[in-house]
Amino acid sequence: MLHFDPSSAASLIALCLCFVLVCVFEFANGFHDTANAVATVIYTNSLKPTVAVVWSGLMNLLGVILGGISVAYALVELLPPDVLSPPSGNPAVPMLVALFGTALAWNLMTWWFGIPNSSSHCVIGSLVGIAIGDSFVHARELGHSVDWSQIWKVLSALAVSPLLGFVGALLLYFLIKSLVKMPEMYKAPMPEQKPNPIVRAVLVLTCTLVSFSHGSNDGQKSIGLIMLTIIGIMPAAFALNPASPVSIEQIRQDAQQALPLVTQYDRYSFKGDAVASIHRLSQTGEPAEAPSELRGDVYQVLSGLRSVAANPAASDADKKLASHLAAELRPTVEYAPGWVRLLSALCLGIGTMVGYKRIVRTLGEGIGTTHLTPAQGAASEVVGAGLIMTAGYTGLPVSTTHIITSGVAGTMVAAGSGINKKMLTKIVMAWLLTLPVTVCVAAAVFYLLV
Asked: What's the pTM value of the predicted model, to 2 decimals?
């Protein structure tokens, strides 16, 4: 695919196909993760299924629109700079095909078997796989050509958040049980039996919080993926932020300050590319580069500055300056138009309204040996919503599925309900396999396509 002319009909068709795939992936993300928000209100008869998923879909949509973009570009920056913004645009097609094809296939397979699995893990594993595949394509040493500091930062948030969900929901359940003396909170309603109005209001509120928080975090992921795709399709229009006029003089000054920081670190595979980009950006006069080439140079500098900020040998002053310069350069290339936010919100919201039954049944009946009770559902959802919203506004991608599922398991343990070991084994196996499978498949697909 590297032999395709970026402006050829074949490349444009492939990129348009990738645009469709990212919308389908976000749609699948919606119906795959819907159960995290609606399982409690459906299993306690607080809301009819149709009403619950429509309401959850609307809250997901609102969460995407009101959320930021820090998570979106935390994921995008997992990619090497030469793949992320190549001057010729050539690797865009194989990168996007490997990314969406791998993530979507694994997401749909786990949904088909009713296993709560993380769409975030699918995307992150695919991005890491592409970074590794790119290293093999260029025969680079893995230790210094993949941004492991950014990868460990993302993976750490994914690993710690389920543990916090489990412990937090367990403790909150104990607190609710000690303070709320309402028997209806601790037993699953009979079929068609409506819960106490207060219980019902609490559960609808927690459903709303989880849905909104899911949109604010997971919606950002698709925003980043949509931006990668439209920049590949129309680099002249979207390579640089049209809402923020590019200050060439400011970029030049930042590049000149970045030069001594980047050049002093030897063990960095993209050092030569970053230094060359800095020299181009430091030239006086108006740049002769096309917008996509200017974007590529800015991303090379950003990659070098991240390497400085993550280097243990760098002084605190150097790290602080590197982070400051990166913060000034990012708005030029890291942005999201309003219509991209709206498209992401619509795909996620509409997806939320369908396909929920398989995962709902697992969460409501499969994790514990007894059915979910209102108190268990409320505790897991309050803790989950708090963790997800906190992560969303601090730029850390987390898995709604893992947090809520872990929270439900924590409340089952707290209530003495017991854990369904067979189902828990399936879920844990899916969690453990997702990253290695998506990393390997995406790396192989990218390597073969380029």
From this structure: 0.78
